[in-house]
Design a protein that fits this description.
Helix content is 34%, strand content 10%. By secondary structure, the chain is α+β, with helices and mostly antiparallel strands. The strands form 4 sheets. A 3-stranded antiparallel β-sheet has the order 1-3-4. The protein has a 3-stranded antiparallel β-sheet with strand order 2-10-11. The protein has a 3-stranded antiparallel β-sheet with strand order 6-7-8. The protein binds zinc ion (ZN) (7 copies).
């Protein structure tokens, strides 16, 4: 093409395997990563009716994959995850019971992020309604398998695809596996290419993966506390606010801005820990009431940005904020304008789509935490842990959180005596600040009690368990 003048095509025409322009390179790159499916751009009735395309769309939208699980194990209380036993394909991998796998298997959708979640997709029958079951979404449905409404979004969407295209569950699993293998191969290829692409010498290890696409700057800590963003003067002696605070290393904070939120937020230094956690979790208090009352250095992330930065620091062995900032500066200078100020994050976290072998983990499964235990002892430890018990009450990162409009209930189910004249305690006050807030608190308390009852029924909470720490007030009248 480069030799062909301005014709715009080379002699191989459509068959040429080289890109004709930058746009084509960009589109191919996105397609290769599996982030764009051109069929979806030209959606026609035909592609809607294409079973494989429809399944792939579900995988991409919900970032997971379809597999078969042993239904008998899945429905037991507590839930057990078992698959086809690799050494004897006729039975399930739960060797205490050895269910016949083929007569007993059920379709399930697995999503793996920092934890692992399974949703069963029951067989579609003529009596099924293509609508969500309201009970199931909130407290869990008592009718369980016999309910004709869908028990999850993914069940609903899968049913819709099945009704439209007639695809069987076997074919769904097959299409899902094929798609997964293709993604795996592509990501291997991409990794293989990376070292030879040159110029990336300073890139942190890992590569590929999710990008930590953020802007960063240091600002005056004192001004920031007052809600002001002030940077240092040229000489790095004072902040540029009227107050002219002294600029020193420990009087500044690092702010970052992600393109999604496009708002400057503070990132606190990485919490010190001998054994850093595999993943940093969001602070439950922040999620519930946008404010953390912990007096020490809270080691949970106070924003998504902070969480991402901490993950990045941990994975790249960066201990202090200056190091991160310097690396960011270096990378920004190096990669501009090719891919902007983009950090690449090791791909371990990015691997949302669970590989068949990844999710070969089996054993007792806690749906509240998305964790598997492979021994009875580990399970007992898990369900009596504070973190697990908190999960019944905190709805961190779940859709449930979005259904409430007021903050998490305080300990006093009464109207605040100071509510008239704008209570000084604000969001940390134990009382409700309006009738509507109080009404929602009572509703939410009832909801949480039912959620607890369901968790007991599912054997996720021991029958004699009465201590829920800071949530105990929700159980008293
Ligand atoms: Zn060509
Ligand atoms: Zn089984
Ligand atoms: Zn139901
Ligand atoms: Zn200042
Ligand atoms: Zn916190
Ligand atoms: Zn749990
Ligand atoms: Zn108050």
């Amino acid at each position: 093409l480069i030799n062909s003048g301005d014709l715009g095509v080379c002699k191989y025409g459509e068959k040429c395997t080289f890109a004709y322009n930058q746009l084509e390179i960009d589109v191919w790159t996105v397609e290769r990563k599996g982030k764009l499916n051109r069929n979806l751009l030209f959606e026609t009735t035909a592609s809607k009716l294409d079973p494989v395309i429809s399944v792939i769309r579900l995988l991409e939208e919900h970032k997971g994959m379809f597999i078969f699980l042993c239904q008998e194990c899945y429905d037991s209380k507590p839930r057990i995850i078992s698959k086809r036993f690799s050494e004897n394909p006729a039975i399930c991998s739960n060797l205490d019971v050895c269910h016949n796998f083929d007569t007993n298997k059920c379709l399930a959708f697995v999503v793996r992020t920092h934890n692992i979640n399974y949703s069963k997709v029951r067989p579609l029958s003529g009596s099924c309604h293509l609508d969500l079951c309201h009970q199931a979404i909130r407290y869990g449905c008592q009718r369980e398998n016999s309910c004709v409404f869908a028990h999850s979004i993914i069940e609903l969407k899968t049913w819709k695809v099945q009704r439209l295209t007639g695809i069987s569950s076997e074919k769904i699993v097959e299409a899902s596996l094929k798609h997964y293998n293709k993604l795996e191969q592509n990501s291997k290829k991409e990794k293989g290419n990376r070292p030879s692409s040159g110029g990336g010498g300073g890139k942190p290890k890992g590569g590929g993966g999710k990008s930590l696409d953020m802007k960063m700057k240091f600002v005056c800590a004192q001004c920031w506390r007052g809600g002001l963003i002030s940077e240092p003067d040229k000489a790095l002696k004072y902040c540029n606010a009227k107050a002219r605070h002294t600029w020193t290393k420990d009087r500044r904070v690092l702010l970052v801005k992600s393109p999604e939120r496009s708002k400057w937020v503070q990132v606190r230094p990485l919490p010190h820990a001998k054994n850093p956690p595999l993943y940093y979790d969001m602070c439950a208090q922040i999620l519930e009431k946008r404010k953390c009352n912990y007096t020490g250095n809270c080691t949970f992330a106070h924003s998504q940005e902070e969480r991402e930065m901490w993950m990045y620091m941990k994975n790249n062995d960066l201990r202090d904020m200056q190091q991160v900032y310097d690396m960011w500066l270096a990378l920004t200078a190096q990669s501009r304008p090719a891919d902007g100020a983009t950090f690449s994050q090791p791909s371990s976290e990015e691997k949302f789509i669970a590989m068949p072998t990844d999710c070969a983990e089996s054993g007792l499964h806690c749906r509240l935490c998305g964790k598997n235990s492979n021994s009875e002892r580990q399970w007992q430890q898990h369900i009596s842990s504070e973190k697990h018990k908190d999960r019944v009450f905190s709805c961190e990162g779940e859709d449930e959180a979005l259904t409430w409009s007021y903050r998490f209930p305080g300990t006093r189910f009464e109207i605040c005596p100071k509510a008239e004249a704008k209570c000084p305690d604000g969001a940390s006050c134990d009382y409700a600040h309006s009738r509507d807030e109080l009404r929602e608190w009572i509703e939410r308390r009832n909801f949480l009690r039912q959620k607890l009852a369901k968790a007991r029924e599912d054997m996720l909470i021991m029958p004699d368990e009465l201590d829920f720490g800071k949530f105990n007030f929700l159980l008293q009248d």
